[in-house]
Amino acid sequence: xxxxxxxxxxxxxxxxxxxxxxxxxxxxxxxxxxxxxxxxxxxxxxxxxxxxxxxxxxxxxxxxxxxxxxxxxxxxxxxxxxxxxxxxxxxxxxxxxxxxxxxxxxxxxxxxxxxxxxxxxxxxxxxxxxxxxxxxxxxxxxxxxxxxxxxxxxxxxxxxxxxxxxxxxxxxxxxxxxxxxxxxxxxxxxxxxxxxxxxxxxxxxxxxxxxxxxxxxxxxxxxxxxxxxxxxxxxxxxxxxxxxxxxxxxxxxxxxxxxxxxxxxxxxxxxxxxxxxxxxxxxxxxxxxxxxxxxxxxxxxxxxxxxxxxxxxxxxxxxxxxxxxxxxxxxxxxxxxxxxxxxxxxxxxxxxxxxxxxxxxxxxxxxxxxxxxxxxxxxxxxxxxxxxxxxxxxxxxxxxxxxxxxxxxxxxxxxxxxxxxxxxxxxxxxxxxxxxxxxxxxxxxxxxxxxxxxxxxxxxxxxxxxxxxxxxxxxxxxxxxxxxxxxxxxxxxxxxxxxxxxx
Length: 503
Ligand code: NAI
Ligand code: MG
Description:
By secondary structure, this protein is α/β, with parallel strands linked by helices.
């Protein structure tokens, strides 16, 4: 059932052959200073997929020095805006040419269905680089009418400098793109630290950056663990900014690392426990479908997963049952099978975490309408598969409704009216996304205004766009990625005052 190497794109086979993957530092592929490597696994089978250099403090230091050199003396920030734009466009073209290799690597390393990897992860990455390829020529300052006599003032927007970027495993390639594209567009240089569970597509992207003509030292990729390589990057005295996507817990660690080192700028995109709200007056076919897709997409390993579905009392049973029936029909299997809708979770650790919540739900008094356990099919035993799970009779106070599970697990919670659902929706530590399903315009606007969330979807769920700001209220993070907000994240504003003289 599992596709074998025989079926893989020759580009993937070539990439995986020939020993441990190396670090990209200063335009050269090299071993970790310690010589150590670690394994990355195929979550569909549990088998080792490749060995990868285990970067640590010394490698981070070398990479930061390369990025510093490239920033201070290299051609990248000095290039004209139009030239940088062309290189980023070329990069997008190359990713598109190599799309199948990227998609298969992503599915092998992360487990996700190949159809989603092709369309969303790789397609989205190409779109993202193309959007930011347009930005270098549009980064503007302002002329400002100050009241100091005989003085002319303007602002410049300049690249913040050397950026450390630490990314998670749920969308490995796309997270690399979200971080790299705006930083590169404004002329920053980067040390990228991929998640230890899914390092492969970022390494392949590193090579693709070189092939596109991004000068050496501008993009450095150091694979390794979080508490070693990641921590060294967050604490480094010569890194100007760290951008992080991952858990709220490590978000705190990153802020602490900044505060005890050089007060580097920090942007954080952290977890979520997003409410997806279905009013009785909604187009129920659309709403039920959207509620199911909102949680089961990417096996629920999504920071905006609609993991709390609030349903107005009169349609509660109908909507909960629909999502459960939908869950039972989803096809589980290895991501490389074209028919697969639900792949494995990313790792044994994530499987253990999710199974812990599957056991907790009934203990807290929730009713299992579908799933509730690991998959039992013999061919899925060695992979990290769980059944899509619907907990009914859930209450917002339960841990299953308060804590980010990051698996295909949804709590369906009843509500009475607009005030009640805004209060319940906001009664959580997070504030990343939210959905509202209603045909009543007033309700839609009131709920959209009342929910503390960085993105609110009305009669749709989960879509993002490179031009649209994305990020979180409350403990879901600091700052906004995408669009002009991302340009602001990677630039410093400089005010310049010029004495115009007396005559
Ligand atoms: P994590 O936050 O530990 O990992 C994310 C990244 O941070 C990885 O690259 C990791 O190597 C790095 N990291 C870990 N410790 C670090 C440290 N001390 N200093 C610097 N970097 C460090 O997340 P993990 O353990 O993989 O997943 C745990 C939970 O986090 C998930 O169940 C989910 O709830 C949440 N999560 C949220 C994500 C999001 O998109 N917002 C993505 C991944 C996980
Ligand atoms: Mg892996």
